[in-house]
Amino acid sequence: MKYIFVTGGVVSGLGKGIVAASLGRLLRARGLKIASQKFDPYMNIDPGTMNPMQHGEVYVTEDGAETDLDLGHYERFINQNLNKYSNLTSGKVYWRVLNKERNGDYDGQTVQIIPHVTNEIKRFIRKNAEYTKADIVITEIGGTIGDIESQPFLEAIRQFALEVGRKNCLFIHVCLVPFISGSDEYKSKPTQHSVKELQASGIHPDIIITRSESDCGENIRKKIASFCNVDEDCVIQNSTAPSLYEVPLLLHKNGLDRVVCKKFNIKGRCDLSSWKAMVKNIHSRKGKVVVGLVGKYVSLHDSYLSIVEALNHASYANHVFVEIKWIDSEKINKENVNETLKDVDSIIVPGGFGYRGIEGMILACKYARVNKVPYFGICLGMQIAVIEYARNVANIKDATSGEFDRKGSNVIDIMEDKIGKQIGGTMRLGAYPCMIANNTIMEEAYQKSLISERHRHRYEFNNLYRDTLINSGLVISGTSPDGKIVETIEVKDHPFFIGVQFHPEFKSRPNHVHPLFNMFIKKSMKG
Ligand code: GLN
Questions:
Q1: Which residue minimizes the CA distance to atom 6 of ligand 1?
Q2: pLDDT (tens digit per residue) in 352-380
Q3: How far apart are CA 79 and CA 90, in angstroms?
Q4: 98: left (phi > 0), else alpha (psi -120 to 50), else beta?
Q5: What is the pLDDT of residues 1-45, one digit of tens each?
Q6: Which of 242, 313, 337, 498 keeps 20 to 30 A from 293, CA to CA?
Q7: CB within 6 Å of ligand 1 — which residues?
Q8: Using CA atoms, how far apart are residues 321 and 284, in angstroms rounded to an integer?
């Protein structure tokens, strides 16, 4: 088993996650089994309770871990499912160490960052390796070299390399190479300083990836190689690509997987033909559809990252541009709803929490149902569709969710086993099977009767209202295999009106479009 550690230097936001994910894709294209992992230095146990406006979306794995959004990139690029060992925060490490201390597991020793915290970090790397049985484990260290928070992680990976043998490990450092317009040149000094800092932690990079706006030139790369003491072919350029999914091709062209395999003595060819075909589709798009995304976190687009990517994937598959019109649901009211939505071809209401902005979503949903505009409700968006239908078709005027108002008719209510539980880590999380009913949009999209999708919610369709809503014409198109939990709803005589309690966006891949997003975009094109 081989291990690659990816660190970042100079500034944050360099796309270190995209580099790690792209490398995963390149090694996968060489027939290797890859496991990815991200270490986040913050103190939250996981990102599950973090505000999406601060931290972007929470990505959910098959086994129900709530993880950093970078893990979504890993899955999309590498197309291998991640797991509960894929994301480790400082909070989670300290939590385990302190629990062990309380349990008396340390036999009265003084508990310290070295070795107890670092041991816990190393255990996590090993666990992921054992669990996935991958050929190569790629671990990204969040944050920037020099941050106080990431020091225990650096110390842990330094020790880890010593333990498994330096020849089985590679350290890749991604660094900014800025362009100074005044002197019209790229600068290598920030990289030199960052490498020096990394070396102070006892880590010498094997490969340096230079992140620059465009080609920083052979001379700069030679200078970095010489001053930072790495081979010349190990300074790999990563300039801004026209699209995210072109980064693996760019890094391949610049020799990244070649030098990695040379260092690890791995033979074989890199077959990127299907990836290249997908990238070709990106450039063959014509015309456009406008999707109105009605949510309350719209000022930070990363809050909906996987949905945006799933729409992109459907746009590639259908050779059409998808433009998202970001609509703040709090700003929608009865007076402006028609005007706000008149120029969109279809509407998505994505996931969300809390009452704020809900009434605007309900108005948007009604607009879509009545005007036969394609509607795709995801998680909260499904619950909104049920509330709207209950209020305006089934005549349950005070219909709402128990999450917003306990006094109204709670057509959506808390799942019984979640009553009174704490907030973190107590949602229905991860993959659950769903049985599809005949003659439904679900069946037409998936072309099968049993599917599995990932969940992240605390509330669900309330069966006390099931018969009333069915009698008013609502279609229950997907349920848990025992029929008890309503997973998807539809509206009849409508080109595409569907609400799903799960998050299909997490399973969409650039070269494997998700069936629901695919059909949604197809129907939007007809609008
Ligand atoms: N807030 C809703 C619930 O907890 C929906 C969650 C979501 O959209 N992810 O059930």
A1: 457
A2: 999 999 999 999 999 999 999 999 999 99
A3: 27
A4: alpha
A5: 999 999 998 887 788 999 999 999 999 999 999 999 999 999 988
A6: 242
A7: 351-353, 379-380, 403, 456-459
A8: 9
